[in-house]
């Protein structure tokens, strides 16, 4: 018994390059004699197959089989190979018998049938709904066959199978040459023709063997091209010159050894060659040749090193530039080598397909243990499956032959144990035909796979469980006799169920592959799988990019500066690129190159010019895509000259030029205008030598820099001097913020038809108050695609590709109509459809296994509404992308009534990204974090501001003296004064030290009142308060362990009136001391006096360690001293340099910050985190060890410090142009309540 499973179909190839020809639609069946009709059975003589002609009432009015089941068929012999373009069906006249769905099969021999498929996946045709109406199908591609067979699948449930049939087409001319594996035709031009604009070679072939050389071409220069069939695939091998080796240039097709006709074409047009196999085409660059051999080649003449044999099979309608080569061979005008005949001998082999889990074949066979002989051939994609099993005689056990890990395995089980275990072969799941032979003679058991014997291994163990086999079988021999499978089909011998008889239904689902972007396709009998590892794409077909399309998108996921993979076109063809994202107020993409150092150039006489090449980290396509999408682009390259003429002005020919993006030469330079042949100084008339238009042309003995144009995409060619290479800086695209606001349900935007036939991905962001509405819709004749908000907590992605409406739903636990931005991403491909909303669990629905796969749309795409103007969307849609392309909603909204471009209000969605008391500030396109009230800095107020100190350094932050208050009549100033009196304090800082005792923070007033934070001699934290000058200080002592242990600790102190609380948090161990209250008495008038002796003693010792994120109420004194020393009321004694010692990742208390170059970056690149975080400063520790005592003098607190100009820490390199400040207001303290932020052009920052 043979057990196999799963349903399968055959792919119908296009056997001819011609399309459906006008006039090729004549009836083919109506004139045939009754002898041309056959069937599996007939209900009676009057229901015979000869009566199955369309619109005829002969006999019982049509064909009906004896039993109505799926094993019945009607066959028609068209008497010769014919082109078939359409079929029509009808029920049996005057009855309730008709077929509602059926399969079409074709054959040239009446055996080894092939199934016609629509869209390469749909096998079934819809039939009739009554007995009299005619249902006609025009075939998408014509087929060429002599025999036509119809297999009913379903019929009227109140009747039985009843059928009348007509086929339409025309006669087909077929000129055939047959080759036996050693013969070939030699076709050559004498003399060789001259060059032509176009050459075309076409043919059909049918192969007996899976390998062989079909065509070999040569030219007079020794170049050669070979088309080889190798294991059912066609390869093109090219050799350049007689001494060269063959290299494979293309590969197409699969399962081409199925003994059916396949079409090939090689078309050369102006240097480009289209190589086509059936319906798949590759474009190449090849020569054409004057000497061609068909069906093989002489081993000596071709020096062939590919297949060991020539082609074994038939070539049909072999045409070269319109010349019929087969006719020339018949007329002996083409040399024939070996046995070439002009008829195609058909091999009659009857395969069968195991098509469902219930499929089996049971044959009579008496198996003895002493003498056994069995052989068969099979082909499959599965790694496992049971091939056969049988009980041995005399209770010798049970024989099992099966596939396991793509190897043949034989076991004999007896009494629940394995007594014999043999394996043979390997990689037998490659879709090729493989043979299995089993023989037992005189006690010796031999198992062979593909004629190769294997050794026997005897084992013991438990009985295995086997999966069913899915695949094809043929040539089954039992004890040397071939099983007649036609008799099995006629139920004359054996028994079977669920088999597809007389055809092999194997389909190569990986040819062509639906895996995109380099995904590796693997398959089983019923499906395929795409391995997307290391591609940068994901999903069932590797369609969607796993990376963001811009630095702006990464920024709004909360990511800081660093290296990220950017995929500018999403699911488009351009590969992701590793790019440095500089996350400032705006997100900049920085593209590096390989030549950032100054290059010294030597003088040139003009013959040996210096060519400066700059290889960017992105290729040309990636650069072009990034530039086209960027809001702003900058590039800078400088040339330093000394006695080196550049333009040779005013009258000479220029010595130097640069090449633009399209390859044209230019002779103007940065600051000048095109075609001016000047430098910037010439245009501004301030060159050192006014006689010249460029400083370089004055033959001066000093170095002068000259800037190249800022958009220079390719290198110039300077004659002498020093060249400093460019980096490109690109401001992230506005695509991320491209939005439209829909204020009526009837409003919408329309765009051209969306084309996503096989793969479609759609992503966008929305915010709304409405409970429902359609985001977008595109319709076809029957197909459609739609995404809508069906309720406040549900999004639906629906479509129809011909299999009926299909829906994917995502429900969210929280309402989506909350006026916050929400992200939707939908994808549909041939395997599945998926929908994701925000970070909630997504939904995936599998596509039907054998359904329609092409999405065919023809109307406009509606966004924010529908064509019917019903269920429109109210709210904002942003960053709408279809298959990686962003739709310009804003531009379309500008010309559309009831739709407004843009959509403000982002802080409600992104305000949470501003950390550590940072304040979200709204912008038209996005937001910014104001870190003015935070001791942190950075894009999201996330970066610790830290410094490492040693004795000799101090910082004081000073306010105005008390009498200044009387001069200011501002009521706001008075409120500031009242707020900052000593009614309460909030103090926070982080520190890392190994010193004890040590003074960490000291706050004092002019009246001997103070607050001190210190470590005592045991390393415990002490907080010392004195709020009355005439009373002793109060000391609060923490019971925490020794904090002078070199680890980072965070301290928070809060006093409200007479209540004090202290929290201490360690990096490795957290100690939260919700401290008991310390009650202090009120303070009266204070007198001036000396510093507390203990504090003075600790101050004299100095402090060695790290202080970070120091804050006193709204003041960040350390941040002011480090980042804004020139505009803040701070006094710094000794050197003070920013460090990263306050970072929790820093393990050493003496750690200094280092500057990373892009070449230093390493690590795993993820979609959410950079390879290396922000390159924030180029400073290292200056002067070694530094110490500090921070004094915050709280005097009368009359007027706060003067307005602080905003500045930003930068990474300065020799290539920097000038500082750009961060646009976000990041001030530690503002002393002028009426002042406003001012940014000058010179404060802008460029990262290079």
Automatic annotation (TrEMBL):
Keyword Ribosomal protein: no
Domain F5/8 type C: 16-170
Residues in Laminin G domain copies: 176-344, 350-504, 738-903, 964-1141
Domain EGF-like: 506-543, 904-942
Membrane topology summary: Single-pass type I membrane protein
Domain Fibrinogen C-terminal: 542-593
Protein name: Contactin associated protein like 3
Species of origin: Astyanax mexicanus (Blind cave fish)
